[in-house]
Every structure is written in structure tokens, then in C-alpha cells.
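Hello,

I think I submitted the uridine-diphosphate-N-acetylglucosamine job twice by accident. Can you confirm which output corresponds to this input? Input:
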Amino acid sequence: MKKTVLVSGGAGFIGSHVTVELCQAGYDVVIADNMSNCDETNYKGVCAILGRQLPFEKVDFCDVAATKALFAKYHIDALIHFAAFKAVGESVEQPLMYYKNNLDSFLNVLEEARIHGANVLFSSSATVYGEPDQTPVTETSPRKPATSPYGNTKQICEDFLRDCVQAYGMHGIALRYFNPIGAHPSALIGELPRGIPNNLVPFITQTAIGKRECLNIFGDDYPTPDGTCLRDYIDITDLAKAHVCAVTRMLEGKMDEPYEIFNVGTGRPVSVLELVNSFERVNGIKLNYRIAPRRPGDVTAVWADPTLARKKLGWKAVRSVDETLASAWAWEKRLAEAAK
Ligand code: UD1
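Support: Only one job matched these inputs. Its output is below.
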């Protein structure tokens, strides 16, 4: 019997890529999204890649009754929870909006997962490590006090899951993503930032296509080899495959502990300047950029030790930064074509 996975936030950037990989691995997927931060582009792209329509439910997980109805309608074996707000700066300006949305929605799905015996995969973030004392970070590296309400919601939701697993005999996994970038090789799904992008790669591609005049590189006086920050940029398709491994681990009863945490990164630090230079070289583009002041809240360097995921999930990142940056550019060009 095929197992069914509910993907909350499944019309978004990460959710859409995960849906494709789950379906291609033989799972049935129900996509649920309130469409508050995306349009139908990625949902349509997912259906085009798979060559069939997928069940889609417009649900806001802050709505208790709607969440209950969804779990009553489908037999959900596992839930992957992406439905959340994710802009760091906005969370500082509107903490209540972030706490209400990100915490309420997760509490509601946890309650239904408990009632219906569904396994839970939570999409966490390397932001929980803050400015680490040592790099690369392992899953046992200390979590640092969050520097934004967004980061705090990731820490709190990890704790919600840990405590529910312990109290109710549930099973759960938190995946801590480093910096997901790129787009599906088909260029049919990708990142669709609203307004001015906060993240580096969408800002690069929008500058290259002419939507933005100039990329600001936030600081070149960090204590790193070239003075710009170091991050672990992980290809979105590689990242999506880690979810398939994690869901399978839960559903096949292969977990060592009922609550597990895995870093999802490459283990490869890349500086902002290196990333910009790679983008230019791979795509044959000269990017307009300048050095700007540091962005408040940025950490100097963080990258993953991905050993645990390799050993326990049997997963590792395989795509090169070059391939990923080519996919990001192909996606931006496709969006420009579609807008004509
Ligand atoms: C941030 C969040 C992370 C979240 C991720 C995806 C924190 C501390 N970080 O990661 O939790 O999961 O976004 O939403 O909460 N940069 C520029 N110019 C730009 C944009 C970025 O130079 O226009 C630099 C930044 O200074 C940073 C690097 O690029 O060094 C990556 O930035 P970004 O893509 O925003 O990701 P993070 O801040 O690492």
C-alpha cells in the first residue's frame, strides 16, 4: 500500500520540490497551502513535472476546524510541515504575526498528528545555531539564543515536536536546513520571492535579469579569507531528497530514537564573493555589484557537518554549486519569458 504524505506549505519553494521527489519515490502526496505567500506557479509546475494533477487543499493551519477536517478527509501517514512565515527582517518588525502564525499552525498539526498517529517532519533551520563557536556545526552543537522572532519560532517548534514525541509516543524528525538555493532542473518550479528578495541568490538572479540595478554585498571586512560571510549553500533538489530519506526512515520504523535531528547541508563553506563569481562564470554574465555595509544580524560563518545524515539517512548532497547556480539562472529566465 502506498503511504500518504501531507505537505503543508506544499505550493512554496521547498514544499514543491519535496512534493516532486516524494511522488517520484512512490509516495502519494496531498498538498495543502493557504497561498498567503505564493501563487499557483509552483503547484502547476509540480503537476507538469509529474504529468498528473495532485490533490490540493487550500487550508490555513491556524484554522483548527479546517486542519481537523483535512486530517479527517485523508489517511495521513506522515506530515511534512513547511507552512510558516520565513522573512527574518519582517519577523523583527511583526513578532506577534510570526509567533501567532508559525506556532499556532504547528500546534494544530501536532494535535492532529497525535490523534491520527501520523509521523511528523519539521522544517527547521541552521539559524538555531546562531553564531557558532565552532564550524562546521554538528547536531549536538549548542543552539544559541535566537536573534529574530523567526529564528525563535524554529527553536520553539523543534521543542514542541521533541516534547510531543516524548509525551505521546509519536515519531518526529527535525531537518535543519542550511541555505537552500537553485531550482528544479526542469525550470518548472523554483523560488518566487515577493517584492525585493532578502536572500542572496534571488537577488543575484534578479540583478542579472535587470529587475534590480545592483547587488549589495553586505560587508567585506568579516574575519574570513575574502572578508565576506561564509555559508553552506545546498541545492534545492538535493535538499528535497533528504526529506524522502527522512520520511522513509520514520515510516519504515528505522529510527534510533523517536525524535531525531539532522543537518541538511553540503559541508562546504562558500563565501558571498565566491558565489557571485561562480554565478558570473557559469552563466557567462557580468553582475553589477558593490560592497555595502554589513547587514545587522548576519553571522560570520556557518556550515554543516553533514556526517550524521550520511550515516543514518543514507543521504548526501551531490550537486555542485555551479550546477545549482545554472538552475537558478534558468528559472529566472523562464520567469522572465512567462511574464512577456
Ligand atoms: C537567512 C536566515 C535563515 C533562513 C534563510 C532562508 C538567519 C540568520 N538567517 O539565512 O535562517 O533559513 O535566510 O530564508 O536567520 N547577502 C548579500 N546581499 C544580499 C543578500 C544576502 O551580501 O542582497 C549575503 C548575506 O549577508 C549572507 C549571505 O549573503 O552573508 C546569505 O544571505 P541570505 O541568502 O539572506 O541567507 P542567510 O542570512 O544566511
